[in-house]
Design brief:
Layout (H helix, E strand, L loop, with lengths): L2 H24 L5 E5 L1 E2 L2 E2 L5 E6 L2 E6 L5 E5 L8 E4 L2 E9 L9 E8 L105 H27 L1
Parallel strand pairs: 1-9
Antiparallel strand pairs: 1-6, 2-3, 4-5, 4-7, 7-8, 8-9
Length: 245
């Protein structure tokens, strides 16, 4: 059996093993049924609205034929709450448990929760103030003499520094001062760059003729002539020898 066939067989076994768990997870839980025939100690009246809440989910029905039935979904062990025509009510099981269980069945009686009346407090008595009695008014006496001057008080603390005043007007220009002595000579400056070449001057006068030298070309000319004749004679002899052969 090849490796590919072995891997395919293992994959098929894993899928078959996980299939029941996947199917079970996709199936919804079976509801818990709450029912009853008695409300507030009397037979349930047709048309009365019953609301059962489990895990924040409301399920509602109406009484029909003197009884009511509500099927709810929830989590295991959750505690339901009840309302009768929108008024909170308590449920007392007569068959089964009040807590939610899958496929559970509970028969109970409902009792509306009536809020106790709020006690009213009588208003406190308001005290009536007594009427004021006017005081007797006497005749004003004569003004007495002025009293002696009091002792001078101590000096107060220095006040805070005031803001700076505005700038004054500029004064007139002063007279020119006397002329100062001549300063020492400055250091010698660096040499300037070389100037450009000047134009060519006029041609000077011709110099005096030199003394005539000895003639040295006569002997050389004779030797050259002899060598030329020898070369011509040799060339002619070679030419003739070549034709005879």
């Amino acid at each position: 059996m090849t490796r590919a066939k072995i891997l395919a067989l293992l994959l098929a076994v894993m899928v078959l093993a996980l299939l029941p768990a996947v199917v079970a997870a996709q199936q919804p839980s079976k509801p818990h049924a709450y029912m009853g025939t008695t409300i507030d100690g009397a037979a349930a009246q047709d048309g009365t609205t019953i609301t059962v809440t489990v895990d924040g989910v409301d399920e509602e029905t109406t009484v029909s034929g003197g009884q009511w039935l509500v099927k709810t979904t929830g989590s295991e062990g959750a505690t339901p709450t009840f309302q009768v025509d929108g008024v909170a009510a308590t449920g007392t099981p007569t068959v089964g448990d009040l807590a939610w269980t899958e496929s559970g069945r509970t028969i109970l009686t409902l009792t509306s929760v009536v809020a106790a009346p709020t006690a009213t407090t009588a208003p406190a008595a308001t005290a009536v103030p007594a009427a004021p009695v006017p005081a007797a008014t006497g005749v004003a006496g004569e003004r007495g003499p002025a009293g002696a001057a009091g002792v001078a008080g101590s000096d107060g603390h220095d006040g805070a520094t005031g803001a700076a005043g505005a700038a004054g007007v500029a004064g007139s220009d002063g007279k020119d001062g006397t002329k100062g002595d001549t300063g020492a000579a400055g250091a010698e400056g660096a040499a300037g760059a070389p100037g450009s070449d000047g134009s060519t001057g006029p041609t000077g006068p011709a110099g005096e003729a030199g003394e005539q030298g000895d003639s040295g070309g006569g002997g050389l000319a004779v030797v050259a002539l002899i060598l030329a004749l020898v070369a011509i004679t040799g060339a002619g002899a070679a030419f003739m020898l070549g034709r005879r052969t």
